[in-house]
């Protein structure tokens, strides 16, 4: 036997792109583990920890929220958080998220589109556009603002059936985007089988945004069959992410594409075909256009537009559905999106790429999970927004999710759920035995702190669960898990990885490095 020592020094590289091969600072998988936050929840602890750090979220929504939230926004005119739901309800919360109110039950609406623009909140119904405002004066709801006088008595929208993600939650069919360069609110639609953009433009007579100023039906045509899922700015241009839709989510019915338009020419100037059948979301951040595409049978491509006719895949996740437009956001240089997982466990959770600062490596991390109870077929994050202003040490996303029955809005808290971290797969290539695992913690295990260690061998064909790490079994800031802690079932013939499952309601992070000692058979 020969001794071999493995040291885990960093997890900043994020989740690895394959099972067998990864970089030294990458790992196999995780749920609700974020190295980009401090080691503790103490307000004076502000330094990025860079360790295996669980993150907790808690539900703040109540009985008024009984539909899946699809859009979350705030405005510069009030202190409310506004939520537009899949059944047409508009629900608000105060800035501390402690007060909930049903503001409007909009008829004939699937939460089709939502945006703040010029002192009003605009919301798309199935065939109309309503608005609420003026927010600086005495606001009121007008559910028919698009087809009546406020916006010029425009032609009604079309309620095209878009494909659905989990729980029959349909992707919104009238996405909205405020383009700053020409100060217009663009709205997606499909008219007679052709994707189009409409424009809302307002000015001030008495209050900001109260008077129509050239709103127009059908300001841009897409090719027939292409339905807009996402609208975003790219410098002075508007970019539309469009897919060829069909309610059958099994067959591949066509190709998705990006359409670039300068907002003044009669048509788009560039088409960029995408490698996936569906594009569902776009995000422009710090001069980079990011996008999400994939299939509705499993697989999400996260990419950036690099110019010309080319996108570059940043990460590819083999499971999940590409997120809804209202479930993507950014904080600093970190891009985040709503998702679901079945590996390493079932969750409705949030993925993020990068760090709040480019001083750290840019990896893929699963940074939070919703409090809804996900199963192998249920659970989905439908909305995501960074709406609470706070220091960058503790980003405060709001997560909207459903498991098909329960519907929750969650905010960062100190009530910890189950978090999971799996190391990279260590390919030994010979018979071996795990002799010991050395771990350290910022604090000694105390009440409500629980970590279950587990070893998986030979492509997960066998496993062994170790002694639970809690205040009953361990009282120091460091420990060594030996073979006896795993019932002496610590041998493999090819490879292994470590799993740590955090299930206590109190925080117990794991410091790095973790050291693993092996005995490797040299006489095969």
Oligomer: single chain
Can you count the beta strands? 43
The domain tally reads: 2
* Major sheet characteristics: 6 strands, antiparallel
Q: What is the level-2 CATH architecture name of the largest domain?
A: 7 Propeller
CATH topology of the largest domain: Methylamine Dehydrogenase, Chain H
How far from one another are the termini? 10 Å
The proportion of residues in beta strands is: over 45%
Poorly predicted regions: none
The CATH first-level class of the largest domain comes to: Mainly Beta
CATH superfamily of the largest domain, by name, is YVTN repeat-like/Quinoprotein amine dehydrogenase
What does the model show?
This protein is 0% helix and 46% strand. The strands form eleven sheets. Strands 4, 35, 36, 38, 39 and 42 form a six-stranded antiparallel beta sheet that branches. Strands 1, 37, 40, 41 and 43 form a five-stranded antiparallel beta sheet that branches. It has a four-stranded antiparallel beta sheet with strand order 5-34-33-32, with no helix packed on it. The chain has two domains: 2-29 and 420-520, Jelly Rolls (Sandwich), CATH 2.60.120; 56-415, 7 Propeller (Methylamine Dehydrogenase, Chain H), CATH 2.130.10. It is built from no helices and 43 strands. The chain is mainly β.
List keywords for this structure.
single chain; 524 residues; mainly beta; Jelly Rolls; Methylamine Dehydrogenase, Chain H; six-stranded antiparallel β-sheet; five-stranded antiparallel β-sheet; 0% helix; 46% strand
């Amino acid at each position: 036997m020969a001794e071999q020592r493995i040291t885990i020094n960093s997890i900043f590289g994020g989740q690895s792109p394959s099972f067998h091969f990864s970089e030294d600072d990458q790992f196999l998988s995780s749920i609700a583990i974020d190295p980009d936050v401090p080691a503790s929840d103490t307000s004076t602890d502000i330094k990025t920890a860079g360790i295996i750090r669980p993150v907790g979220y808690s539900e703040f929504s109540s009985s008024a929220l009984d539909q899946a939230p699809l859009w979350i926004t705030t405005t510069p005119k009030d202190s409310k958080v506004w939520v537009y739901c899949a059944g047409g309800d508009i629900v608000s919360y105060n800035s501390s998220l402690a007060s909930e109110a049903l503001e409007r039950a909009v008829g004939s609406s699937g939460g089709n589109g939502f945006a703040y623009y010029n002192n009003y909140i605009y919301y798309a119904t199935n065939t109309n556009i309503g608005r609420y405002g003026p927010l600086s004066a005495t606001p009121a709801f007008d559910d028919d603002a698009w087809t009546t006088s406020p916006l010029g008595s425009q032609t009604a929208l079309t309620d095209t059936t878009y494909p659905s993600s989990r729980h029959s939650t349909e992707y919104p069919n009238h996405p909205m985007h405020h383009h700053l360069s020409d100060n217009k609110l663009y709205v997606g639609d499909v008219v007679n089988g052709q994707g189009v953009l409409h424009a809302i433009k307002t000015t001030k007579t008495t209050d900001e945004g109260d008077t129509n100023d050239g709103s127009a039906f059908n300001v841009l045509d897409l090719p027939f069959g292409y339905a807009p899922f996402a609208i975003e700015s790219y410098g002075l241009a508007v970019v539309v992410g469009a897919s060829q839709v069909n309610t059958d989510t099994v067959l591949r019915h066509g190709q998705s594409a990006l359409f670039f338009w300068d907002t003044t020419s009669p048509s788009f100037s560039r088409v960029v075909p995408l490698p996936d059948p569906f594009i569902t979301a776009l995000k422009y951040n710090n001069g980079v256009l990011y996008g999400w595409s994939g299939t509705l049978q499993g697989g999400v491509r996260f990419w950036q537009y690099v110019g010309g006719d080319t996108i570059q895949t940043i990460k590819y996740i083999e499971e999940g559905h590409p997120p809804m437009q209202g479930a993507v956001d950014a904080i600093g240089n970190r891009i985040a999106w709503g998702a679901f997982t079945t590996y390493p466990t079932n969750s409705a959770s949030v993925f993020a790429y990068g760090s709040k600062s480019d001083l750290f490596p840019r990896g893929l991390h699963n940074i939070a999970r919703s409090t809804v109870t996900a199963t192998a077929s249920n659970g989905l994050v439908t909305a995501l927004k960074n709406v609470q202003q706070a220091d960058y040490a503790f980003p405060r996303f709001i997560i909207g999710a459903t498991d098909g029955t329960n519907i929750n809005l969650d905010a960062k808290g100190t009530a910890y759920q189950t978090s999971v971290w799996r190391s990279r797969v260590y390919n030994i290539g010979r018979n071996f035995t795990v002799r010991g695992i050395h771990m350290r913690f910022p604090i000694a295990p105390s009440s409500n702190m629980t970590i279950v260690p587990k070893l998986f061998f030979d492509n997960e064909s066998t496993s062994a669960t170790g002694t639970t790490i809690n205040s009953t079994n361990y009282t120091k800031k460091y420990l060594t898990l030996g073979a006896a802690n795993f019932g002496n079932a610590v041998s493999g013939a090819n490879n292994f990885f470590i799993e740590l499952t955090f299930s206590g309601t109190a925080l117990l992070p794991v410091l790095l490095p973790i050291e693993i000692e092996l005995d490797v058979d040299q006489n095969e």
